[in-house]
Specification:
Blueprint: E1 11-17, H1 28-40, H2 48-58, H3 64-70, E2 78-86, E3 89-96, H4 101-120, E4 133-137, H5 140-151, H6 153-156, H7 170-174, H8 187-190, H9 196-212, H10 216-220
Antiparallel strand pairs: 1-3, 1-4, 2-3
Length: 222
């Protein structure tokens, strides 16, 4: 039985990596496919990924926003607060909105992306290292801290400064003009800061702290 029991209106850090630490995102198209699945599979409706694929066949230059006008996705089953996609692992910060929403959401995302990846790369079998891992966020302070850890994970791991990394949520917090609109749960974080600059200062301070801690992940999840 899973140690974490998910409750509605509670926040959770969700993460997983490729089996045998392998890369799960080989190129930009893989990142984009996973990113799109985070949007379209966050719905009580099924079949939106197939509908999007069919829509692109007839409208190859269409934007996702155009598709969603024609095929509204309905109610979300989770609220996304923060995310980061690295080559061999991902991090999400989620709030559960419906019963078993996180389990259903992550099952759909993992299954959909694994099928896509295996077909594209002519492989079979599991892509991710078992079931996704999870940690219940029980306090506002931990939630704020984890919003930085997740949003800036590429920088924490020395992959890329978060401000330059396209596959994380830092840009959504650091600018009102961010093109990405994946995070519908930003308010719970933003309400704790007077301005965007305050959040960026908080992020800068904590990224430095995280990078100085050699065993940071073990300490965070204890």
């Amino acid at each position: 039985m899973r140690k974490t029991q998910f409750a509605n209106h509670e926040y959770y850090h969700i993460y997983n990596r490729g089996v045998d630490k392998r890369k799960v995102f080989g190129d930009e198209s893989d990142f984009f496919r996973f990113y799109i699945s985070l949007i379209l599979l966050n719905s009580e409706k099924d079949g939106l990924m197939d509908d999007w694929r069919d829509f692109r066949k007839w409208h190859p230059r269409a934007q996702l926003s155009e598709f969603l006008v024609k095929c509204p996705k309905g109610n979300n089953i989770v609220e996304i607060v923060a995310y980061c996609l690295n080559q061999n692992h991902y991090h999400l910060l989620l709030k559960q909105k419906t019963e078993d929403g996180i389990k259903k959401y992550m099952h759909k995302v993992s299954t959909s992306y694994t099928n896509y990846f295996n077909t594209k790369h002519d492989r079979s079998g599991a892509l991710f290292q078992g079931r996704f891992k999870s940690c219940h966020i029980k306090s506002t302070g931990k939630l704020l801290y984890m919003s930085v850890y997740v949003s800036c994970n590429s920088e924490v791991h020395g992959i890329s400064p978060a401000r330059n990394y396209p596959w994380c949520s830092f840009g959504e917090y650091a600018s009102d003009n961010s093109k990405s609109k994946l995070c519908g749960g930003k308010k719970v974080i933003n309400d704790n800061f007077r301005s965007i600059d305050d959040f960026k200062d908080f992020a800068k301070e904590n990224i430095k702290y995280m990078r100085e801690r050699k065993e940071d992940e073990k300490l965070i999840f204890e």
